[in-house]
Amino acid sequence: MVKNFKMIAKTLYGLEEILAQELRKLGASGIEIGTRNVAFEGDAGFMYKANLCCRTAIKILKPITSFNVFTEDDVYKKVYAIPWENYMDVDGSLAVDATVFSKQFTHSKYIALKTKDAIVDRFRDNEGRRPDVDLDHPTLRINIHIDRNICTISLDSSGASLHKRGYKTASTMAPINEVLASGMIMLSGWNGQCDFLDPMCGGGTILTEAAMIACNIPPNLNREEFGFENWPDFDVDLYELIENAALKKIKEFHFKILGYDNDAYVLDKAKENIKSANLQEFISVKKQDFFESEKETESPMFIVFNPPYDERLQVDAEKLYASIGTTLKHKYPGTQAWMITSNMEALKHVGLRPSRKIRLYNGKLESKFVRYEMYEGSKKAKKQ
Ligand SMILES: C[S@@+](CC[C@H](N)C(=O)[O-])C[C@H]1O[C@@H](n2cnc3c(N)ncnc32)[C@H](O)[C@@H]1O
């Protein structure tokens, strides 16, 4: 009989509902939405599928036990008591991530250290040898989460964060996180039903995520490895079955995905990334100043972008944002434009009234993801 278990998908602030929708669509049960996470239930095959197919998850954790802790010594003793030999071999390596929300425990790094000590001491006491610590490529990544006095120990089935899709070979200044890019496109409501433009595309993250959404390509198809592949119970045949089933759901896409940037160097990087994702067929990029561009077709279009914020890229943000407003208003009729920024002062200079505002975080920067709707002709004419 297939056994379901509880899992926690971690995500970015503001993407919880979108992630829950993704999980529901993939077939998860028992979905509960939290802050920056969604709990759900499924079996091992579903855990593989969630890692492969969720665009807005950063990690899929599998909790193995929960207990109360009141002191750091409690943490050590209770972690020591877990039969770690069932989850990894002494010749393997481990890494521990800790998240702590508690008055009693304030240093997450110290909790991670105590957890690691307890695990290696258990191996040394039982086998006379201990596993190594490898923070970058461990055989087993473990997560310890303390919420007040409740401590949950989970295995990290993803390993490295799921935003590392595996297609980004070229790095640029101020790239957007892949999970955030995907979440923004899904929040915008674009699902491949019309043309799409990122007019300040940088390294092409938004374009690449858009093409994968439009064609229903699993976002982590190009990834080198998932954490669960090193687990003793990894079922490679089941994984291949899941992967083949996902590949069968890839669909055709008949519209255009366009990217502009006025920096030729950055555009070369975008081309490299798009090629490495094998999506050249669906995406065209060109050197173009957005402010000198106009909509290339008469059909409806979605724009999703992250302009410079003046944080990492030095720009005259107020002037730039005013030009964004003017360009959208005069050159892009019949367009729904969404942009993310943390520069609230500059945002006022766009001069258009946003029809939606969503709070998101771009890294540590609190940001707004705003929508401007440019109608074909005047709004009044549209209503008549
Ligand atoms: C924050 S970055 C975009 C990063 C991108 N989303 C990524 O993931 O790599 C902003 C980009 O806007 C471009 N840019 C600035 N002004 C522009 C303009 N007037 N027309 C086109 N691109 C512009 C910059 O060259 C830069 O690559």
How would you describe what is shown here?
It is elongated and about 75 Å long. It has helices at residues 16-26, 44-53, 72-80, 108-127, 178-188, 205-214, 236-248, 264-276, 317-331, 344-347, 379-383, and strands at residues 5-10, 29-33, 37-42, 59-68, 93-101, 132-133, 140-147, 150-156, 195-198, 257-261, 283-287, 301-305, 335-341, 356-362, 365-374. By secondary structure, it is of the alpha/beta class. Residues 172, 174-176, 199-203, 205-206, 260-263, 266, 289-291, 306-308, 313 line the site of S-adenosylmethionine.
> How would you describe the shape?
elongated
- Percent of residues in helices comes to 25-40%
**Alpha-beta content class:** alpha/beta
- Termini separation comes to 60 Å
Fold topology:
Elements: E1 5-10, H1 16-26, E2 29-33, E3 37-42, H2 44-53, E4 59-68, H3 72-80, E5 93-101, H4 108-127, E6 132-133, E7 140-147, E8 150-156, H5 178-188, E9 195-198, H6 205-214, H7 236-248, E10 257-261, H8 264-276, E11 283-287, E12 301-305, H9 317-331, E13 335-341, H10 344-347, E14 356-362, E15 365-374, H11 379-383
Parallel strand pairs: 5-6, 5-7, 9-10, 9-12, 10-11, 12-13
Antiparallel strand pairs: 1-3, 1-4, 2-3, 4-8, 7-8, 13-15, 14-15
The structure holds S-adenosylmethionine.
